[in-house]
Amino acid sequence: MREALREEMLRDPRVVLMGEEIGVFEGVYKVTRGLLKEFGPERVRDTPISEAAIAGAAVGAALGGLKPVAEIMYMDFVTICLDQIATNAAKMHFMSGGKLKVPFVLRTQYSLGRVHGAQHSQFFPSIFFQVPGLKVILPSTPHDAKGLLKAAIREDNPVVFIESGVLYRTKGPVPDGEYVVPLGQCDVKKTGNDVTIVAVSRTVIEALAAATKLEEQGITADVIDPRTIQPLDLTTILESVKKTGRLIIASDDVKCGGIGSEIAARVVEEAFDTLDAPILRVASPDMPVPFSPTLEQAYMPNAQKIIEAAQRLIG
Amino acid sequence: MLRKMIEIRRFEERVERLFLQEGALIGPSHLYLGEEAVAAGAIGALNDDDLTTSTYRGHGHAIAKGAPMKPLMAELFGKSTGTCKGLGGSMHIAIYPEKGSMYATAIVGSGIPIATGVGLALQKEGKRRVAMTFFGDGASNTGAFHEGINLASVWKVPVIFVCENNMYAMSTRADYAVAAESVAARAQAYKMRGMVADGNDPVSVYLAAKEAIGLARNGQGPTLLECMTYKLHGHGVYDRGDYRPKEEVEAWLKRDPIKGLEANLLKANLATQGDFDRIEKEVAAEVEGAVTFAKASPVLPFDELAEYVYVRQ
Q: Which residues in chain A are contacts of B304 at CB distance < 8 A?
């Protein structure tokens, strides 16, 4: 991610970063390490604790011709500036009759799985894909995080880029040299015949672990990471469901009105007759995130829950 | 300046008739009647390439910044020839980037941090351009106002925050809801200049704005400029403002900004009644031309709407 920010800042002088603790402190999770030193305080701008001002200033700076990347430290804090994202930025292009462009990226992260309690762990991406005009990115690997962030910065639309705090610790191959991951393309991480598992963000890791275990039981799975929810590459998902006839959707948001609900509804609308079994969602329960590490682990979607869902479908 | 004020007044009076008498327009619309001196004076002090942002009470700002009446009127009618192709409406009519009128928000206070961001872009550009944003006394009670002007002061961006204090946020009086001596006094808490101008006197507004703009251009940061003014009618086109004391309304009506400016111009021998008559005639023709244009214009086909949700890469 740091490489993506750095490369895009070198590539385009209009790219500026703004957010709390991103400069001197180099980011709460050190994503912006070294960037203040390299680019200076004009382009790496520490802000007061003012989420509405951070998001609003990013919108305004984009209107004024810059390409801001604003960071909101925890996804929970996005609610404080939601007005700027959902009611200003998302609608500006539309309600100006196509005249205005607000190209900026709002980076944030959710810390489910890091024992941060109810107010620092929430993951509610549906708020953003319920608002036409925003693009919503949920990377799950270092490769995609870099390539998608670069693509996001090059977008002419407002983009919400949601990282998983747990995934900051994951390692994975990142190619040398320039590459971009285009928005709206699923990554088929594993192929199989018996069940399709669509997973996003942190649950991609869980889905892959589940698929490996299921294989030992003779059940093979397609594991698909949509990587972006808006735009959503439904075609790849439908093709897989056509083959397997069974669909599980795993994601860290709560079940009610979440990513799973949306994908399930679209699959039913488009391909009901290809389904051999009900669609199952493996999501967080409809309650706030508990603090106790034991309870938090029980709360979260995991490989075991995905395995159980697959067994229920195939039985 | 007088011309701009008359343009705004006659445009708004015509809009009011289109709503109330002719039933030709529907939806929320917040008229600028009575506040003309603020837009004309403050925007009159800007250069053409400076940028403004506006609010849902934005017809006046748009006219003052140079948006032509035809697309403005067409927007009110929801027509494809409008400033926003009929997708914005009255509350976003002042989105006219062709003349540097960059945005108009319908969420009270939310334009303030956006102006800070526009200012940041202009500061970085280094061409000594400035941004000016308008909002009301009610907006100064929002969190966005306080966050936005604090950040503007921290970054010393070239922005003039113009508060149109018309004494009421809908029916809520500023002397009840603003827990400060004045809106301008709030600037002090953010190490920002606060200035007060007579918002019914375009010269007072112009001179104050000119000073604030000059300082902003020279890298001396933002100013909060409070202009004391009054709406001729109520909050929106359907609101008669009955909650305002009669004596107060009458006292402000005597201070009509257009009549005041005309009297001063006559007294100083800078214009004649004939000049005013000529302006009135020209403006009346322009307004009627805009109405005819708007009525004759087509509505955007619904099938095309999806094209406006995202910028095509």
A: none
Question: Residue A142: exposed, middle, or buried by beta-carbon count in 10 A (0-12, 13-18, 19+)?
Answer: middle
Structural domains present in chain B: 2-297 (3.40.50.970)
Instruction: Using a CB–CB cutoff of 8 Å, tell me whether B92 touches chain A.
Output: yes
- pLDDT score, position B313: 80
Domain boundaries, chain A: 2-169, 187-314
Tell me which chain B residues have a C-beta less than 8 angstroms from the C-beta of A52. 110, 113, 143-144, 147-148
* CATH superfamily to which A2-169 belongs: Thiamin diphosphate (ThDP)-binding fold, Pyr/PP domains (3.40.50.970)
The reply to whether B151 touches chain A by the CB within 8 Å rule is: yes
Quote the pLDDT of residue B266. Answer: 97
Most B CBs within 10 Å: which of A42, A45, A63, as the mutation test of the B interface? A63
Q: Do the chains contact at A68 and B117, CB–CB below 8 Å?
A: yes
10-residue mean pLDDT profile of chain B (313 residues): values are 97 96 94 97 98 97 98 98 97 97 96 98 98 97 97 98 96 93 96 98 98 98 98 90 94 96 97 97 98 98 96 89
Q: Is the pLDDT of residue A315 over 90?
A: no
CB B202 within 8 Å of CB B5: yes
The mean pLDDT of A10-36, rounded to a whole number, is: 94
Q: What is the pLDDT of residues A278-299, one digit of tens each?
A: 999 999 999 999 999 999 999 9
Supply the pTM of this predicted model.
Answer: 0.94
Contact flag A93-B116 (C-beta cutoff 8 Å) = no
Question: Residues of chain A with pLDDT > 90: what percent?
Answer: 99
The second-level CATH assignment, the architecture, of A187-314 is 3-Layer(aba) Sandwich (3.40)
- Amino acid letter for position B290: A
Q: What pLDDT does A29 receive?
A: 87
pLDDT, average across residues A147-166? 97
Which residues make beta-bridge pairs with A162?
A: A108
Pick B95's closest partner by Cβ from A54, A59, A99: A99
Cβ of B107 and A83 within 8 Å? yes
- B95–A133: do the CB atoms touch at under 8 Å? no
Predicted local confidence at residue B240, as pLDDT: 87
Catalytic residues of A, which ones?
A: 120
Chain A touched by B156 (CB under 8 Å): no
Torsion of CA A227, A230, A231, A236, to 10 degrees: 50
Those residues whose C-beta lies under 8 Å from the C-beta of residue A242, and which sit 6 or more positions away, are A271, A274
Is there a contact between A52 and B148 if contact means CB atoms under 8 Å apart?
A: yes
Closest partner residue to B105 among A66, A88, A133, by Cβ? Answer: A88
Alpha helix stretches (DSSP H) within chain B: 2-20, 36-44, 59-65, 69-76, 111-125, 143-155, 174-177, 202-217, 246-253, 257-267, 273-296
CB neighbourhood size of B103 (10 A): 30
